[in-house]
Amino acid sequence: MSKAGQNFIITGAGMMGLSMALGLRQQGHQVDLIEQGERPDYSDAPELRVSALAHRSRDLLQQLGVWKTLPGARLGPYTGMEVWDRDSFGRIQFDAAEVHQDNLGAIVENAVLEQTLWDAAEAAGVRLSPGTTVSAQQLDDNGVRVSLSDGRQLQADYLIAADGARSQTRERAQLPLTFWDYEQQGIVAVINTVQPHGGVARQVFMPEGPLAFLPLADPQQVSIVWSADNERAEQLKAMSEDDFCKQLQAASDHCLGKLQLASPRASFPLRMHYAQRWLQQRLIVIGDAAHSIHPLAGQGANLGFADVAALLRVFSDTIGDDRQRALRSWERERKAAAVVMIAAMESFKRGFGTSQPLIKMARGLGLQLAHRLSSLKQRLIHAALGQ
Questions:
Q1: How many CB atoms lie within 10 A of CB 249?
Q2: d(Cα 164, Cα 46) in Å, to the nearest integer?
C-alpha cells in the first residue's frame, strides 16, 4: 500500500476541518469535506470570534501555504502579554524580546482564516459539499460509508469528525463524553480604545471570571472575551452600551482609557467536554469535537491545530498496519495533552475564582514570583508561544 491514495471524509469546515482537509490533499489523498453551512464569509467590520494563534499553529498554517495569503489588515500580532489579579497585588508581564522573538503570536478573526482555508482547499482539489449534512454513517475496521442529505452515498478509508463541540458525527458513533458546565458565559465584542493597545494582549482575573483584551490590527481596537458567572453575565448583557463600557473600564483598571463598543455584544455558554475515545475503527475525532476548554488562556484553537499537525504526520509517515499503531499513539499523545490543558484551565479558574484572603495572597505572590524569576518567566513565555 502506498503512502498516498487514501480516501477521507471530513465533517465540519471550521478551522480544524479545513486545515485537515487541505493538509491531506497536499499529501496526495482524496478528501470530501461535508459542511452544513455555506462558504465562510466576512465583511469589512471586525468579526466577533477571534483566536490567539501561537507560533506552532502559525507554523502549521505556513506549511499549508495559507499564512502568507491572510490579509495583513486583519491580523493582530502581539508582542507582549500582561496578566494581573484585580483582587490582589499580583501582576506579570511578558515581552517577545525576552526570548528573542518578534512576537508572541497573532490574533486572527476566525471567519477570515476559515475563508482563506476554504479557498485554498478548493484550489487544491478538496471536494467541498456546502449546505450538506450526514444523515447516517457506517463504520468497520476497513472503512466507512456515509449517507448525505442530498441523497449521495460516499465511501472512504477514514471518517474525521471536525464538526465542533456538538459533533453529530461523534454522537452517532456513541463515543462516551466527560462533560461539565462552568455555569459561565463568554461575552464577546469589538471595542474602540482611546489609548493604543501597543500590541499587548491583556487579561485581568476577577472572582466572577477573567476578562481578556486581544489586540486587533487597528492600534486602537481590541476584541474582548469576558467570561462571567451566569448571573453576572446576564446583568452585563442587559446593560446599556454606555453602562457596559463603564463596567468594562472599571474591571480593566482603565488600562486603555475610555472604551466604546464598535460591535454588538454576543455571548456563548462555557462548558468543558472531553471525548473518552478519539479513535474508533476508522473514525477519528479532532478539535472541538474531541475537546472543549475554558477560554481563559485562549488555547482552544492551538490545542485543535496541534491535533491536526500530529495527525497529518501520521498520514504522511506511516503505511499499512503501522498506520493503525501510529493512530493509537496519536490518540494517546493528544488525549494526554488535552487532559493537561483541561486540568490547568480548571486550576486557574478555581484559583482565581475566589476571594478567600489566603488564596488571594498566594496567587498574588505566585504572579510576582513568576514575574521576578527570569527562568520561570521564560518557561511561561515559551508555553505561550506553544513551544
A1: 18
A2: 23
- What's the rounded Cα separation, in Å, for the pair 155 and 158? 9
Q: What is the DSSP letter of 123?
A: H
Beta bridge partners of 84: 91, 204
Rounded CA-CA distance 349/364 in Å is 15
Task: State the 10-residue block means of pLDDT for the chain, 387 residues long.
Answer: 74 98 97 97 92 94 97 93 74 77 92 98 98 96 96 97 96 93 92 97 87 95 94 96 96 95 95 93 97 80 96 83 89 92 67 51 49 49 51
- Closest Cα to residue 122, out of 48, 21, 219? 21
Q: State CA 4 to chain mean position distance.
A: 29
Rounded to whole angstroms, the Cα distance separating 140 from 40 reads 33
How does DSSP classify residue 88?
Answer: S
Q: Three-state DSSP class for 68? A: helix
Residue with cell 458513533: 173
Secondary structure of residue 118 in the 3-state scheme: helix
Structure-block grid coordinates of residue 147:
449517507
Can you give the pTM of this predicted structure? 0.89
Backbone angles phi, psi at 24, to 5 degrees: -65, -40
Exposure of 97 in the CB half-sphere (CA atoms within 13 A): 3
Tell me how far apart the alpha carbons of residues 233 and 236 are, in angstroms, rounded to a whole number.
5
What would the grid cell of residue 183 be? Answer: 455555569
